Amino acid sequence: MNVDRILDSQPQDIVVETVYLAGRLLSRPLTWELFLRQLQSDVQTATRPHSLKLVREIVDCIEREQGKSLSDISPERKLEYVGQLDAKLWQSVGIEEEDGIGVDALLESLRQISV
């Protein structure tokens, strides 16, 4: 999957939130509609609309690549995409994974508002 064109030139907070939300969607048996309904109960961030637009682009990219809808893609394959997004996250923020304390803090703040 080529997410470079989707995530490149995005600010760090957008990349982190987009990857986090895409990971939430891909790691659960959710349709896009169910995912959006689930997000309604989350505290909304200022960047959420833009991040969701990018998540939708990622989903469209995956569906085109696989030739099927998200709900028809195996959980194992979806987790492979999560791994690719995770790798892109670390690359996008320009730090090594072991030095990712700032990213960890951003992810933790997103987890807190989604509880």
Flag low-confidence runs: none
What is the end-to-end distance? Answer: 29 Å
Number of domains: 1
Question: How does the major sheet shape up?
Answer: none
What does this 3D model show about the protein?
- The chain has one domain (4-113).
- Helix content is 67%, strand content 0%.
- The mean pLDDT is 84.
- Helix 2 crosses helix 4 (48-66), helix 2 packs antiparallel against helix 5 (75-92) and helix 2 packs across helix 6.
- By secondary structure, the protein is an all-alpha fold.
- It has 6 helices and no strands.
- The longest helix is centred in the middle third of the chain and has 19 residues, at 48-66.
- It is globular, with a radius of gyration of 13 Å.
Name some characteristics of this structure.
6 helices; 115 residues; mainly alpha
Secondary structure elements and pairings:
Layout: H1 4-7, H2 12-26, H3 32-39, H4 48-66, H5 75-92, H6 101-113
Helix pairs in contact: 2-4, 2-5, 2-6
